[in-house]
Amino acid sequence: MSQTQTLYAAFAGHLNAALDALEEAGTLPAGLNRAAVTVEPPRDASHGDLATNAAMVLAKPAGTNPRALAEALVAELTKLPQVTGAEVAGPGFINLRIADAVWLDELRALAELGANYGRSTMGGGSTVNIEYVSANPTGPMHMGHCRGAVVGDALASLLEFAGHKVIREYYVNDAGGQVDVLARSVHLRYREALGETIGEIPEGLYPGDYLVPVGQALVKEFGDSFAAAPESEWLPAFRTRAVAAMLVMIRADLALLGIRHDVFSSEAELQAARKPAEAEVWLRARDLVYDGELEAPKGKVLDDWEPVALPLFRSTKFGDDQDRSIKKSDGSWTYFGADLAYHFQKAQSADALVDIWGADHAGTVKRIKAAVSAMTGADGTPTPFEVKLVQMVQLLRNGEPVKMSKRSGNFVTLADVVSEVGKDVVRFTMLTRKPEAQMDFDFAKVVEASKDNPVFYVQYAHARIRSTLRKGAAEGLAPSAAHIDRLGKEELELIKFAAQFPRQVEAAAAAREPHRIAFFLGDLAAAFHAYWNVGNDRPEKRFILAQDAELSGARLFLGAQIGQLLQSGLALLGVEAVEEM
RNA sequence: GCGCCCGUAGCUCAGCAGGAUAGAGCAUCAGAUUCCUAAUCUGGGGGCCAUGGGUUCGAAUCCCGUCGGGCGCACCA
């Protein structure tokens, strides 16, 4: 079951009908472009329930003045039974007041749709592949990965809710040189497990303790047969074992945050299947790959730089600053060479691609977008492809920057932070700012201030509602829609706020900005808390009224729906809606 | 030098494809608890939306320049 039309969309329809009527009457020339006409709630609630800019937008092309047009439109809109008031304001806004019955209908719709209220058909069932996390399989997840993981996961849920099929994908970079480094680091741990004294981990290898059990497992599997063997004999086996072990760890870390991917794609398998080679052939046939030399990098001096002929992809043809090599001089694939084939492969099974990347990869966005355009656009329209850059999280400890590096073994793991402050705090914190803004995450501060975290504010609203429903039930009072027409002004304000959820979902999904849901929930919780507190001074405004079961039932009904909405919204963010606090 | 992102209250940040008097949390000041969960609520103070121009009925929002901060500029990943 899905919601087919929001209340706001319905009024956009009414407005269009009114404009049609004006056209027929000759007040308005036919065929004006109405694309810029909006129907939305005014910033200031005292202006009414809905506002439209139609008169201001259309006045000029219609050759009339905004206020005159607005008056005519008001006369038309007033005919609607749902409209109880319409007036012209300011430079030509039309403010509408909507009949209470319309809002009460919306409340009933919320109850009927339950967890599906706000679900949209906007996506039209098209498939979006969203790639996120994709951390290198060389160690546990650390806080630097966390933001992209949470944002990607929440976005995936949001797009699903907005009517897309979603594939959640993790690209495993298991083909590069860093995996050799990992394998060598593991070999050292393997020798250690055999009883050798390995001393300090040499510079350049991964020093983390998390490799100790991997070494032990390899002893169990291979005994001591590789202890003194040359690297070429053990490297391939150690690579695959080590990567597999790292992925087990990474999945466990992600699970702590409630994150699960549908697909793990391996770069090594991609190469073994010769996908990059196929891509090269295909691109060469279209003169999109040629042999050439790269310019020396600007802005820094490399002593060992010298021009070499390499197969280059013509990314400049698609807006990049430089053509990019797809192979190294030793004949192996560059990261880009494989990534290009990978994206082409993804495009086969999805209508649109979204990548969530850390901002440190910003420099490679143009080339991969160029590659996707080139490869998917050859016969028809290119597959829509967006890269969302998630800015770095600067990790602080008491205001001091913490340098993080897997090489040095000095990093704060995601698991540490989650066990310290909890999944919900981590997730909500990451979702209460837009991803492209830089962010400080002071470990000490977050731990210390976790009680003030906004996530609890939202959860508390939900817990309050659940508690009230339990208490009502204990007193024989159940939520009921039978008398919701007795709800008053304060209750209607709450309904009006809640009714914005569907359009918030669509706007957030269209913008690929899950953080908007977090802010909406904060505002909804605030509206609820404020309403609740009215009952402190005025006992007749409480939910539980032993002397008036009808009104009590109506208020509990409203409360139940607000609770449901909080739960739906939190579910999109992957945060628990708790029963009590 | 070039590319991308950011600059809004003391601090952390929203600002919904340009709308009406720029908002919230924290901090601060003044209040509310014999009462359904006070992890809450009510109110006050606090702003040259970095800056200069442009676009138009209208700009924090779009365009250009400048300044400041971050990230990147390999055949790394």
How much of the polypeptide forms β-strand, as a percent range?
5-15%
- Indicate the overall shape: globular
Tally of separate helices? 20
Unreliable stretches (pLDDT < 50, length at least 5) are none
Instruction: Compute the average pLDDT.
Output: 89
Tell how many strands the DSSP assignment holds. 15
Report how far apart the termini are. 32 Å
Helical coverage, percent range? 40-55%
Strand order of the largest sheet: 7-6-5-11-12
Helix and strand composition category = alpha/beta
Q: Rounded to an integer, what's the Rg over CA atoms?
A: 29 Å
What profile does the largest beta sheet have? 5 strands, parallel
Your description of this structure?
It is a single chain. This protein has helices at residues 7-24, 54-62, 66-77, 100-113, 143-161, 177-193, 212-222, 231-256, 267-272, 275-285, 335-348, 365-376, 414-421, 423-430, 443-448, 454-474, 489-498, 501-511, 515-537, 549-573; strands at residues 39-40, 50-52, 83-89, 93-98, 127-131, 165-172, 263-266, 289-293, 309-313, 324-325, 352-358, 385-390, 393-397, 400-401, 439-442. With 581 residues, the chain is α/β, with parallel strands linked by helices. The strands form four sheets. The chain has a five-stranded parallel beta sheet, with helices on both faces. Helix 1 packs across helix 3 (66-77) and helix 16 packs antiparallel against helix 20. The chain is globular and about 85 Å long. It binds one RNA strand of 77 nucleotides through helix 2, helix 16, helix 18 and helix 19.
